[in-house]
Amino acid sequence: MLVWDQFRLTWPKFDRFGASLWIPSLGGRFEPEKAVHDMAMTITGELSKSERQHVLRRVRAAMAAQVLIDGKHQGGRAPYGMWWSTLGRIRIRGRLRRGYRLRVLAVDEVAAPVVQRIFGMYLDGLGIKAIAATLNVEGVLCPSAHTPEQNRHRSGDGWQFTTVKTILENPRYTGYAIYGRSHKVEELLDPDDVAAGHVVRFRRSAQSKIVRSREPAHPAIVSVEDFTSVQLEMRARRGPGRVPRASQERTKVGPKAAYLFRGAIRCACCGRKMEGARRKHAIFYRCAARTLVPGSRSVVDHPPTVYLREDRLAEAVNGWVSRLFSPDNLDETVAQMAGAQEGPDPAEEVEARLRERIAAAEAAMSRLQRAVEAGWDPSELTAQFNAAVMEKRAAEAGLNALEPAQQLSAEDFRETVLGLGDMEEALKEATRDRLVELYQGLRLAVVYDHQMRAADVFISPVPRVHKVGVRGGT
């Protein structure tokens, strides 16, 4: 769908490079100097936006009705303590022949007792952090370690208090299907720059928006009474004074902090990234032990909080970078930068993946042709065949547009460095935004050891391919 905001932000780039844009609804090429064309694109964008919102409302209403009446689970990973069970093939024309199967939630005999124990310990008076620490000490596998195939993005290093809290707040353990606990909202990426676009966030829905099935949809692990008691206990422990303060509107918003080493500093003790913390007199990077896994080995040697002051680190880093590019060390630095390009060409890896996509698409097309020859209804395979053709064409287009990675010679690096002038003076006069751009270009990484009060700094200025995608769903 074409939204006017996206077109308005994209068209200047087409115009800058002299590319024409032909739109069927206009009967030819888009001409921005014509008020009629501009008006037509505005109307088209608003109609597309309205249609998109209308489709979203209808789909959400249909999914909510399926949950309410049939107790249908609307996708997603199975919660801890449950797993997907296959009942049999779907008795729908077309899908039965393709092998689609009906899946329902079933109780995991290994993890379900752990869920029941978590609810029981909380009702017995233990806190969330105490429950996580107890499970870690006893060696109970956390959800990401119990089912690593569906938690590849997790490290599986133990129970976190947020994991226990999520389990205690999940109403699916009562046996009822739930839909709409969270919803997507579009927020401005930068309130001071509306043209920067929007970003999609997930927010908790109000209780009136959450849909629960009328009848139990799968076996229950905890009773409705125990779940309700836990929710009331959590609300009581939270205290009545925090809710009014949390609901107050913010009247003062401080300036947006630009951290020089955002995401680049790691704690040598635990290996995690240190987070930025802005104070009145300076900016610090810290690593708090309270966010570590309770009972883990890192907690023993980790101080309560590790602090690293930004201005002192930046002064040392800038001095080191200026010495690297000084005339005395220029030959060695240029040689190392040129040698860092040695290795596999990233373009070759991309080419291999594209050829694999082409081969897979051709195999799918061949398989579908054999199915038609064997007596399958061609109308049922048309969509799959067209999808395979489009996949092959897209991969071939990417292959044709692929260019080998451009490598620079030692002389190219030398000319670039000499063109920067006096690096020491340039770093002293650079703004914070320019320093951030420099550190990101150098791919700077820092490992801070609080015991030695020393930071190991690494740079690897090798060109990389940066991919930028438009928000999904449009």
From TrEMBL:
GO molecular function, one term: DNA binding
UniProt-listed Pfam families: Recombinase, Zn_ribbon_recom
Domain (Recombinase) ranges: 97-241
Superkingdom of origin: Bacteria
Protein name: Recombinase-like zinc beta ribbon protein
Originating organism: Kribbella voronezhensis
Taxonomic path: Bacteria, Bacillati, Actinomycetota, Actinomycetes, Propionibacteriales
